Amino acid sequence: MSTQSFELKGNLFTLSVLQLLDADLNVVKEQLSEKISQAPKFFKGAPIVINLAEIKDEPLGLSDLKSILSDLSLNPVGICNGSEDHNDKAKSLGMSVLNYTKDVAPVVKTQTATEVVEKQVYVPAQIINGTVRSGQQIYAKDRDLIVIGAVSHGAEVIADGNIHIYGTLRGRAIAGAQGNDNASIFCQKLEAELVSVNGSYWISDSLQGEYWGNPCQITQTNESLELTALVKG
């Protein structure tokens, strides 16, 4: 008997969703190029699902859109919430047609005679003493990350748990990287190129408001980011 050559396993992956609000591809290209230019390393090669819910009844040059995204170093893998024509065109382009909705059915728990209790193993936080410099990437797998110092422009800190930065965040911070909607980012001074929690992300121009330059906490609420002030005692 020959040795088994593969295994099929289920897994979850984080995909960015590009929700189109306008079918004018020239406008989309211009605005998307500007966004990507603010954090090119984060978006490079990123798999993208195109959500067509807002323009479902409008004609769309899907082939041209796919080319635009590829030229911007994105990887368009599929569409969702499109019309039948959109779906047929996507399939002809080798793209997937995905089911996507924000409505999640409630989970009903049933009482069983035997319950398996998983013991959680405590993993101490990874601590970085000093500045994370431009070009560096730090990844704290399955734990929190604590940076006692600043995160420079062009630097990237990633954690499957929370991220604590006892200094200025000027680079990119990505918390809950493997899927954790309870993760948070804490920083003493917010001047970030990009922040992301559980797949939701904002880039610099979306952050430059009330909390810019101040201590804050960044969390995910209803699939969007929420910023709150860190009050000094």
TrEMBL record:
Annotated Septum formation inhibitor MinC N-terminal domain residues: 6-76
Where in the numbering of this chain does the Septum formation inhibitor MinC C-terminal domain appear? 127-226
Q: Which GO terms describe its biological process?
A: cell morphogenesis; division septum assembly; regulation of cell division; regulation of cell septum assembly
Q: Which domain of life is it from?
A: Bacteria
Give the UniProt keywords, A-Z.
Answer: Cell cycle, Cell division, Septation
Q: Which HAMAP family match?
A: MinC (MF_00267)
Q: How does it assemble?
A: Interacts with MinD and FtsZ.
Indicate the family of this protein: Belongs to the MinC family.
Q: Could you tell me what this protein does?
A: Cell division inhibitor that blocks the formation of polar Z ring septums. Rapidly oscillates between the poles of the cell to destabilize FtsZ filaments that have formed before they mature into polar Z rings. Prevents FtsZ polymerization.
Q: What is this protein called?
A: Probable septum site-determining protein MinC
Q: Which organism is it from?
A: Pseudoalteromonas luteoviolacea DSM 6061
Q: Which gene encodes it?
A: minC
